[in-house]
Amino acid sequence: FFFQAEDGIRDKLVTGVQTCALPISLLQELQGYPERTIGYLVASRGIGNLLSFCIVAQLTKFDARLCLFIGLSIQAIAGTLMGGLDMQVTVESVIWSNVLHGFGFGLSYTPMAVLAFSTMPAQYMTQGNAIFALIRMLGSSVFVSLTLVVRSEEHTSELQSLAYLVCRLLLEKK
Description:
Elements: H1 7-14, H2 22-30, H3 35-62, H4 64-83, H5 91-117, H6 125-173
Helix pairs in contact: 2-3, 3-4, 3-5, 4-5
């Protein structure tokens, strides 16, 4: 499914994580914002995460699955907002999407850990935590690798098309 999806769907899946960093580099490199402003933009995600900590414990006690659903939904909304940014990006739109992303992450990570460890016997907590961290890091690594594969295939295809056009132009001149 991942490689056979429509281009738009695949691009949304692949660039979901990339959109967190792209608006910031866009503002810094293409629009000339100073590093201090970029630092504030990165910190806005942490502010959203901090705000979520005020309610995540109470919401997780009420219903961990509901809290996880709300957190992932907020992250999806933030990703959609980030995916819609273009060259006319403003600092306010980046801050807003980053705060939402951090808030959603804070609401989703805690209940995910609670749900993972809630039925585990106490004597297996250390090993369970190690496996949890390993799977989380492995999943992140696989996603980054798949992103690089898809992007490099697209880049290779573009280079092949360009080489074909250059060769065709050179042969026509002879």
